[in-house]
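User: I'm writing a short methods note and want a consistent example. For Aliphatic sulfonate ABC transporter substrate-binding protein, I'll paste the sequence; you return only the structure tokens, no commentary, since I'll be parsing the reply automatically.
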Amino acid sequence: MPAPSALRRTFAVIAALPLLTLAACGYGSEAKDEGTAKVAAGAKKIDGLDSVKIGYFGNLTHATALVANQKGYFQKELGATEAKYQVFNAGPSEIEALNSGSIDIGWIGPSPAINGYTKSKGTNLRIIGGSASGGVKLVVNPKKIKSLKDVKGKKIATPQLGNTQDVAFLNWISEQGWKVDAESGKGDVSVIRTDNKVTPDAYKSGSIDGAWVPEPTASKLVAEGAKVLLDEADLWPDKKFVITNIIVSQKFLKEHPKAVEAVLKASVETNKWINANPDEAKAAANKQLEADSGKALPADVLDPAWKSIQFTNDPLASTLNTEAEHAVKAGLLEDPLLDGIYDLTLLNKVLKADGESTVDDAGLGVK
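Assistant:
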């Protein structure tokens, strides 16, 4: 396992990238109140707070937050402190919302968390828990690509220059002995950076031959006739790697630890319920997706996407060290300082109280 200093080089290109343009109507959309989360009689406010503002993506890899919202687990633990929600389409806008105080706690992927922490020189956020692993696939046009070796010379989409899937794909290309310029995406494979929302249309138009993407985009492509050529989980020990973490504003964590602990209790409770009731959980997540976006996922997308995601309280911090090696191999060698990005103290307190095993920060915890 590489030393923490190696991790400082992770996703250097991300740290150098400007933040994406924010949504025209603010940082994110307000999640609709479906009336499922009721405040219990006699409940008290936590830390004297009127509300806790929680952010997440309308994405199955954020199903812990989707289900906790839909089933009322957040509100149950927060008592008379209202759980408020914002739904985001992109990590950078969620980081901006956290920085501005528009949200207090968020579910987010590793790359924007790293990017946000680096840009603030380690002052804006902490990763306080895990949420999901896996759910990333290489899907291709079966008429053009029949085997892994056929990927050479083809046009393959990733979500964004330097994002988690982009780095993973660049590393995989290198392991095949092929050459690609990381910045331009040109070489033995053409890496086309395409927003996940438009990737299915790009596939249908023939402008890409496949994509290395997270769920449910991968399953949306399969529904359009693509085939899964590789599940990224097969490339990792124990088939586990971080895809979604929980972050919190450092200011909020310092001033309102009881509220943070309550949200983490809800997350742990939700993950336990998801893993014990996968079919009901899948339906609950899809119901919340419909409430938030107005559109549920069809079964031919929802079912295979759900099967490829593992829900876990462990942030899988050690996998970031391997991702660091991937970034180094891709030539992304700048030096973002990530020491202290994790603070798992409250999560481990919750896990111990629940009789669960504690989790590790891979040497990158706050001192």
